[in-house]
Structure formats: structure tokens, C-alpha cells
Amino acid sequence: MTSAHNGNHAAYFAFRDELLGPLRAVMLTGQQLCEAGRLLHARPEGLSLYGIPAPEMELRGIQLLGRTAIESVTDSHAAAVAAAAAEVCPPGGNAMIVDLFCGSGNFGLHLGRRLGRPAYASEIDPDVYRATRNNLHKIGDSTLELNQLDYRALLATLPSRSDHDIYAVEPPWGPAFTAAGLDLTRTSPPVREIIDDIRRSRNGRPCLVAIKTNDQTAHDSLARCFTDAQHLRSLTPRPTLPPGANMNYHLYRLCPVHGA
Ligand SMILES: C[S@@+](CC[C@H](N)C(=O)[O-])C[C@H]1O[C@@H](n2cnc3c(N)ncnc32)[C@H](O)[C@@H]1O
């Protein structure tokens, strides 16, 4: 098999297309999970969720659909973002974590565990929801409350608790992933709309937002989605893939909007 890390970028993009196309709603086999680790994260163990590396997932009963294998925030990235969030948030208090587009749930899980907070998650796709529910059961997790809901419905049930509440925002990219870079005004829904929904659900009370992008955003769209927000940290894990395929993470503080 050709590795994307031998300079064959075509292999990465072909595999990406397969995971988001024909394998989108297909439960991956142990062999396919290892292949995903190799092609997306340089080695089979690079795909690791819930503390379980790809080579062990099948044996441990972990279920991942093709789409989630590529969309998920892996353990090393989620742990790094959670550590950065812990640096800017005081310990204790009654703050919550809300993972709005949770997929595997791994992002919210790490944030909740690292910060010692209750975590709530919404996932709208019934197949992804079922797989994630299975996985949380297999790992015996009771820290992440998983809901099969549209993110707006979850927001409606969760009034603000603290200025340090954290929202994980990672909507599907779809047509936002362009040759010119990731255009966050074209995710579904657009990131700016999600930020406005969060603000409304909190009556403007400050909070933090953690967002994943790739390493090539287009049209200054990240900054445009976070006007009236304070940039706190950006994490840029060592790139191992073609430009546009590596993941970056950003932490913002949403501030009250003047005149709102
Ligand atoms: C990019 S993935 C997020 C991956 C996730 N961060 C992880 O670590 O696995 C986006 C997820 O949001 C879900 N989704 C899409 N629209 C949604 C909505 N309106 N409300 C809740 N979830 C939604 C998709 O089904 C998909 O699983």
C-alpha cells in the first residue's frame, strides 16, 4: 500500500473521498481502521479515540463509520486542546462542556475529563449516534451525556452556567473544504450562525469556544466568524499530511456584543 507520507498526496485524498463517500455510513473493519490510521495519521496507532488505538478498536468493540474515522478529533489532539483550555479556565466552579457536533464524542469527552466538568453532546445522524452510544458504553463512560439531537435543540436545554462554559464547534465541512482552503462561512451550518446561536442561548453571557479547522483557511473566514471574540490560543500540531489536510485548533472567548 502507498503511504501519503511518502509524498503521495493522491493516496490521502483518494482515501478521504472514500471515507466521506462510499464508506461514509459503513462500519469500518479492524483492517480499515488501521489503514485509516496509516493514511490519515502516519501510523495505525495515530488514529486513537477514547484512549484506544486503531489496532485495538475491533477487539474492544469500538465502532467507527467511515465519515467519523476522518472527522473525529483524535486523542492526542483532544488532549492538547483540553490542556490549553485548562490553562485559561480556573478549576472548580459549575461550568459545563457542550460538544455541539459530537461525532465520536471524543472532543467533549477529553474536555470534560481534563477540566473535571459535566459534558453534554449532540449528534443528529442516527448511525453516528448509535455507534458513539455503543462506544461510550464499551469504555464504561458516564461523564459525557450523549443526545440524538440537532445542536440547536441541545442549546435550548442548556442555559448558561458560568463565564467559563466551553462549546466545541465542529460542523461538517462539506463544500467548505475547497482548493483555496477551508471556508468557514460555508460549513453546514456556517460557523458564524452557530456562534450566534450560542450567544443567543446564553443571552450574550461570555463563554469559550473550541473549534477545529485545517491548516489552510480561506478568505480570512476564521477571523470573520469570530468578530467580537477574543482569540486565546491556536494549536498547530506538527503537520504530517499535505497542506489543507492537517488539523489546527483554536480557542476563543465570546464577549458581549456592543449594542446588542
Ligand atoms: C465534523 S463531525 C464532528 C466530529 C467530532 N468532533 C469527533 O471528534 O468525532 C460533525 C458531526 O456533526 C453531526 N451533525 C451535523 N449537523 C448537525 C446538527 N445540526 N446538530 C448536531 N449534530 C450535527 C454530523 O452528523 C457529524 O457526525
Automatic annotation (TrEMBL):
InterPro entries: SAM-dependent_MTases_sf. Gene3D superfamilies: Vaccinia Virus protein VP39. SUPFAM superfamilies: S-adenosyl-L-methionine-dependent methyltransferases. This is Uncharacterized protein. It comes from Streptomyces candidus. The lineage of its organism: Bacteria, Bacillati, Actinomycetota, Actinomycetes, Kitasatosporales.
